[in-house]
Batch of 4 targets.
Target 1
Amino acid sequence: MTQVCMIILILLAQAVDLPDSLEVTLQGETLAIVNRDDFTNSLLDTLLIDREKTDHFIEKLDQQIHRDPVNAMINDDGETVQGQVGYKLDQEAFMEDFYAYIFGNGSGKIEVSVLDIYPEVDSELLAHIRVQPIGEYVTYYNSNNKNRSHNISLASEAMDNHVVFPNETFSFNRAVGERTLAKGYVSAPVIVKGEFSEGVGGGICQVSSTLFNAVDHAGLKIVQRFSHSRRVPYVPPGRDATVSWYGPDFTFQNNYNQPILIRTKGSNGSMSVTLYSSDVINYQPRKVPEASPRLPKEINSDL
């Protein structure tokens, strides 16, 4: 038994301590062990670097290290949650050390350096743009329809706390993402070619329609909007915005000189969108018809 353990230890030591190997670490943790022979070729006694293999290695290393920043946000209690700084591989510093190893002799070790990636939205910005409400809209739905209510809540959470910067175009589909079973969406009634049917993510169009009316109320520039093939009951006629992942999208542009904060909430039978900005924004609101607080017959039964 002792001899078997010794053999295993020797094999492990050989696997780690490869001749002329390079160990790449981050904060003392080993990320990769490679050899210069993996990245070089010889031509007439001249050492040549294989750029394709080297670039592929750098790309994989960066993917392994990369951490996206997290924007600051406002929680359900109205408190600001601090953002988090992300980081990525400092490729310039790494390549300098990597080339020194490639053209050197023997084994080597590189402790990689990283570059900070700061979030677009920090607590200071949020404090500046959460002051002035510039547009809002509320629609209503049957909270007893659990599947549809669930989808509305999920899409609302995905869109909440988004910040749209001046001249930036906001896309509903890009912000909310694909509505799939893997993301928690469930089957609920949708309109397909003018008829009601069941589909994953049913109810999402009430979220996009509520957003459209809040955006229109704020006087923002509507870039793209499509209506359903038949009237929907949760907004006045002609005030809907249909969306689907492989089809229509709802987009608008922030044509003001201040960032816009989107706050959304879908629960207990109501879907609300409120848009905020700074107190120095010069905006021109538009009048939009309100949604009826009474649940239409269609919503009480199926939708």
Target 2
Amino acid sequence: MLRIIVLLSTLMAGGVALAEMPPRAPDWTLDSVDGSSIDFYTDAAGHPAVLLFWASWCPYCRALFPHLVAVEADYATRGVRFYALNVWEDGDPAAYFREHGYHMTLLPAADLVAEDYGVHGTPAVVVTDGAQRIHYVRPRGAGPDAVEQALRTTLDTLLEATP
């Protein structure tokens, strides 16, 4: 577990390319705002996934959301899972989603999952393949346009590799 946290911290700081055999993302189970329980390994089995660690008070998250929504619109129909893991929140993430018309799976109270992933700031974005191996981590300071392009490139690569 410590190795994953150190690797993710290094990746988020500098955007280092992942090795030939990427590490497996930690599993988690969280309740969504609709009351259903989501087990990451089960729900995302066989599908690429985008995990966004965010908070409604974060201006960088607010700037990134429209880009993620655009990516979700293009890739959700192709089987990609999108999870909005809300962390360090002092507001109402469900109200924020309703106000902005966001529909990705909202998982409040994800602080412990962020800790498992070595997330220390928002927004953090992680992309996994269908075996939950990490292929992308948003580099610290990467702007919304760069993140959207990296997500599209990573997801295209993962979907092409899927039989």
Target 3
Amino acid sequence: MHRSCYKGTLRKRAEDVAEAPARRYIPLMLDVPTLSIVLAPAPILKRPARAVRNEDYETVRALVPRMFATMYQAPGIGLAAPQVGVGLRVAVVDLKPEEKPSPIVLINPEVVATSTEMVTREEGCLSLPNQYAEVTRPARVKVRFFDLDGRSQEIEAEGLLSACLQHEIDHLNGILFIDYLSPLKRNIILRRLAKEQRQKQSR
């Protein structure tokens, strides 16, 4: 269970975490096939993903460039493995600060601390295209994870990065942003999404 109410500065910025080893994968991201994004209400999006084990790292290293390529093409700023049909605790994030790639790979991430201050912002999701709603989350968060070299890392985030990290870790726990909404609002979004997909397929 993660601790609430931590205080302090952002000890490690996204740019610092992104330096290595994720940056090695940037050239590969432009030269790999993309993956199909799974849309709600697919069952895999509601199942908690299993932890990555040592024997999974070869699979993960092959998967990550394709996840980034898929995310960039969409375009999006975060993507979790279940969204491409893989039930492993892997997520990728890149907010592209100042329009420069700043990829972060999160393996077995967990939220270890959150602020008591909450903030509400509009969220969307690649698995619910063109659907948006306001979601309230902790304003700041500390996340512990492993990188592609299997090293333990921590990142403290606020603002958009905080929301994005929480959103992607939610995916790994089988939670969608619409799960924070009332049943009525959630059903409206799902029905609207289904209608839009039917219209798209009939064209």
Target 4
Amino acid sequence: MMPAVSVIVPCHKAHGTIADTIESVLAQTFTDWECILVSDDGTSPLDHLKALGISDPRLIEQPERSVASGTVAPRNRGLSIARGGLIADLDADDIWLPGRLQKLVPLAHEHGVAQDVLECFSGDRILGYSGGRDGAVAFLRSADVVAFDFPFHLVVRRELMGDEWFWHDSFVQDAYRAAWLAATSPVAWLREPLMRYRAATGSASQGLAGSRRIEVSYDRVLDSLRSGEGAVFSSDDRTRVIAGFERKKALNQRHIHAVENEGAAPAFIEWILRERISGEPAG
């Protein structure tokens, strides 16, 4: 029997956090899922979990063919074997609250794409939230998505995904993919924190090195948008999305400058929350 949801978890040197992440999936009140662990560090996350006493037949291991393959290849690999009618992505250091799938699955079925509010944390500190917490549902178009400076971890109907997660390795694939999906299926945004997002300086996208790699990703995405790639966008949408990514690139440059001047490396999310730079999307 096919699962309702395929959860895809890229795993790269995640032994310190993966147990908490997978236990949060196992604790979901919605239980009709498979969880595909895609390792690209030459180790077996399933063996590691079993050594910790964590085992479940819904956990599936699918090694990536190359080592340290980046942020997109493991997701593409997981998507290639996913059997669920809905696809959800989860990083190996983040945590779902128990009711996340229970609340987002119906929204994704009805509207195509669903997202919740992130509770951003570092260690034992809650840094803040990616939006309001009133339980309302808003609908985000492409321009709303690119006005948002927090990651997107969507639940998406499989037929909207296409054949691959993203078209090149990129540290900004979540924002581009969300904007691309929102052009035809506005994101149903549940204003309730159902996911704990780890803002760790040492993570691939959060510290100074990550911000410098993100700079390259913004340039590549902007080049493709300006060349007309991505026919799903209307002319007006494309103009707004380009402007949104230009703003995001400028913000990333401000983060790099701030880190270099402070002589420290605060995580990007912690920085924008601390400086009150970003708020909710326009929707």
